[in-house]
Design a protein that fits this description.
245 residues; Rossmann fold; binds NADPH dihydro-nicotinamide-adenine-dinucleotide phosphate
Length: 245
């Protein structure tokens, strides 16, 4: 007699409609997890992603929620839990890049960067953690700029991602008693909408001669979310093709 293996626990991905987030949603859904994901302003991309996952038998829920709005983050979390039950995996991918030198940087842009990239990450962990199963996984998407900035005009972005790395260290300790691991993936240049306008700068500087693919980040996230990564927590893992080596 064969017994069916239990379905993997549900996942919630903040910022899943495009780029790396979409690759992460696909990857987690391919493992058989029900996946809820948020988007801010791309309902068509979110719907197309959901349709393509459902076509292959996956279970997915799309939720509109601006990560800068903590109440929207809370509502999205509750909607995901109401649909799928307690969560096994939380991925916080939503992030924005507004480049600019400090002496010309607008305060509204500074506030927006902090609201999405830092407060939004805190809000996601703050609101979702009570709904995570013991032994669950939290993965944030930071940036290799938290280690080395490398290009002018990136100071505010790098600052927000350095804040995420430090938040993750503390969160790892806060949630360790529940067996929940918390790790931060720090990509380098990855081919998404975010880097589309930066290729003239990026291309000649790529040590491996190519830019990274969103699926390569999704693979690392899936490993951190999986059963063999249970002893890794509080870590920031840089995956940048040698950019900051
Ligand atoms: P994209 O701009 O291609 O996609 C960003 C995703 O995040 C979209 O799904 C977008 O949804 C969502 N998002 C953005 N702002 C919000 C918000 N306020 N609330 C909810 N969702 C939001 O970015 P990437 O895939 O390139 O980047 C993903 C993450 O990786 C970001 O945190 C980024 O900082 C980080 N990163 C990217 C690198 C790269 O080279 N691409 C390198 C290092 C780190 P919507 O379309 O609805 O706005």
């Amino acid at each position: 007699m064969t017994t069916a293996s239990p379905s993997p626990a549900p996942a919630l991905v903040f910022g899943g409609s495009r780029g790396m987030g979409a690759a992460i949603v696909r990857r987690l859904a391919a493992e058989g997890r029900p996946v809820a994901f948020t988007y801010a302003s791309s309902p068509d991309s979110a719907a197309a992603l959901a349709a393509s996952i459902e076509e292959t038998g996956g279970t997915v829920l799309t939720l509109q929620a601006d990560s800068a709005d903590a109440e929207a983050v809370r509502a999205a979390t509750l909607a995901a839990v109401a649909r799928f039950g307690k969560l096994g995996v939380l991925v916080v991918n939503a992030g924005v890049l507004i480049p600019g030198a400090i002496d010309q940087y607008a305060f509204d842009d500074f506030d927006r960067m902090l609201a999405v990239n830092v407060r939004g990450v805190f809000a996601a962990i703050r609101h979702a953690a009570p709904h995570l199963l013991d032994g669950g996984r939290i993965v944030t998407i930071g940036s290799n700029t938290a280690e080395r900035i490398g290009a002018p005009g990136s100071s505010v972005y790098a600052m927000t991602k350095a804040a995420v790395a430090q938040l993750v260290r503390g969160a790892a300790l806060d949630f360790a008693p529940r067996g929940i691991t918390v790790n931060n993936v720090q990509p380098g240049p990855i081919e998404t909408d975010m880097t589309a306008g930066l290729m003239d700068y990026i291309t000649p500087r790529l040590p491996l001669g190519r830019i990274g693919r969103p699926e390569e980040i999704a693979d690392l996230v899936a490993w951190l979310a999986g059963p063999t990564a249970g002893y890794m927590t509080g870590a920031s893992l840089t995956i940048d093709g040698g950019w900051t080596a």
